[in-house]
Specification:
The complex is a heterodimer of chains A (549) and B (239). Helix content of chain A is 42%, strand content 14%. Chain A is α/β, with parallel strands linked by helices. In chain A, helix 10 crosses helix 11 (216-230) and helix 18 runs antiparallel to helix 19. The longest helix of chain B has 17 residues, at 83-99. Classes of the chains: A alpha/beta (549), B alpha+beta (239).
Amino acid sequence: MTPEELYQIAEEEQESLKRFHFRMFVCTAAGCLSSHGDSVLDALKKEIKEAGREEECLCKGVGCMGLCSEGPLVFVEPDGVLYGKVKVEDAKEIVESLGKEPVARLVCPIDLPFFTRQKKVVLENSGVIDPERIEDYIAHSGYEALVQALTEMTPAEVIDGVFKSGLRGRGGAGYPTGLKWSTVSKGVGGAKYVICNADEGDPGAFMDRSVLESDPHRVLEGMAIAAYAVGASQGYIYVRAEYPLAIKRLQTAIRQAERCGLLGNHICNTTFSFQINVRLGAGAFVCGEETALIASIEGKRGQPRPRPPYPAEEGLWGCPTLINNVETFANVPAIIRNGAEWFAAIGTEKSKGTKVFALAGRVKHTGLIEVPMGIPLRDIIFEIGGGIPDERNFKAVQTGGPSGGCIPKEHLDVPVDYDSLSQLGSIMGSGGMIVMDESSCMVDVARFFMEFCMTESCGKCVPCRVGTAQIHDFLQKIINGDAVPDDLEFLKKICDMVKETSLCGLGQTAPNPVLSTLRFFRDEYVNHIVNKECTAGACKVPAKQEVHS
Amino acid sequence: MNPSIRVKTFKIDDRDVSAREDETILAVARQNGIFIPSLCYMDGLTPIGACRLCMVEIKGSTKLFASCVTRVEEGIEVITNSKRLQKYRLRILEFLFSERNHICSVCVSNGHCELQSMADQLGLTHVRVPYRYPIQPVDATHERFVVDHNRCILCARCVRVCDEIEGAHTWDIMGRGVEARVITDLNKPWGESESCTNCSKCVHVCPTGALSEKGKSTAEMKKKQQFLPYLTWIREGRT
């Protein structure tokens, strides 16, 4: 594939799109598929055929459009109408209304803050292109960045660009991506590897899944650019087996890219060669930790090992290994294409670019959103999310999954960036955001996450293995009304010890949900202990029993 | 000896010490007679940093470092026994005692147990976290040895010695979190294991009464661990 051939494919594809007067996009990502988006797609195609409008109307399956709570979604161009909760029976009506008045009862307004407040970088193609066709991706400037990097830039220039963009790891910890790339590029030894971490395990998080299902080529392109920059020729995508659709689309994308000469040997007639293989996780949360993930790819038990040495120095099979999250790689093509300055202009001083969040829980509009860094938490929940349904009151928002914390309403104006969130005892995390109203008991929330950590701890180091179980039992004791006031201080001490002494990130962050709820919602704990009552009315506290001596 | 390996000097508890750059803090401390507690570490086996007892402080860092896996650096100042470390170490021991059923008075290893003597040495007087009392099996199918999961602390010494020294890899770990336990072959009874060579290395490296010889009664199981440094020495000498 030469640059000229790439532009030719893009042009042909754009031409063929222009032939159609109407274009219908049907979401076929996992969210809408669960409410039968695929049947809607088939029904629409059938109706178009029966109406004899195949020449003027294109109907294609695309990736996630974001507003998952209203799925299945159908978007119609050039009318600019978004239909929500579309059923198979509605297909005929929708096709008939093309170019006329839209079907009023199905219309979702697109001038909602949910759409207007977002800024799409990673998700720019989601909901626009057919994830199973490489031509569609190429028509939307796909693989341009890779070709540009290979033909016009040296590896050092690529790294410099990523460094200057200020991109930080989107897996949660926020390590500067350019620095990581440059460390790996300096590693010595024969082979080097690039790994994409798609083992998304936080409860309620589905950002990486959506990116892989909606725009898989973007991740492949990002990986290939990274491989060129660090000098690797082999890549792995470690994706959890619970994401069958993402796996299928990834494998299709890899095959297509290889056929087009955009992966494989001598990409773009240069000396650069890069293969990507998919590896499936077997359901362990801890395998999202980089050293455990590497052990798992090597065929060993998925357990972390102490760092240093970091994977950048000694990773897969002892070789220098670059390991980044799906979203991090998905940012790279846009940075190369639009320049580091463009990217660095988005976001805050220390957190650049955008972040994808999976907005879930007690908000009106749940789904996938992408916002610029630094946006106040309040805007995400009350504008984009549309506030709390059923006229209830907001209580807290949980970010960062089992490693994060709960942020109460006093701190709703905090800008969403790495440093501000960690000051509040939470973390940016991979992007799960669960909103809770007054009917949620914060002790029970802490217990839920601790139960998750307890069952997902690999069992290698003592503080995490026994500590998470002990903390969980303490929380259960509080919920059952069996705890005494002194237990709270003791609980805090155990949390501190688990945080400080655990081997890997799982144990070091496992106490965060407990510590942050203790910090902001201590009265709920006290109410459970002293009055044997649940403030939210969510837990069933057994009636206080009189003890007769 | 590789001539390109450099020598570093640094401080452990205000004492000047020197080391080869590929040595760990724990190894250097031991050479200099400085005591750092440990349970999963064993000279001759790959360190895994799992028990977290050997954690030390390094001046200038708020993080703690597992000394068995931390390489020495020029000029660092290591603190092995601060109040903070003592507190954490006691808690780790409490966790271990609370995790399974460690009833010393009826244990084959009573008086010869590394967990017991570590508790004694660090001054653990009582366990403040609730005991979990899990139901754990005992496998006595092997003709010479017994594995009692009630006493296991998951230090993985048996796993490592079997894999790295004996080369049989009979032992491994299954399950996660508190459900994790050591298994032989693919979770077959030890007596039916096809890979076990009956070498007894696992039994002798086991720090507690989890692995013992049959026919031993309370407090009779003394472990003989001298073979390991000897084997390591012979092997290193030959390469």
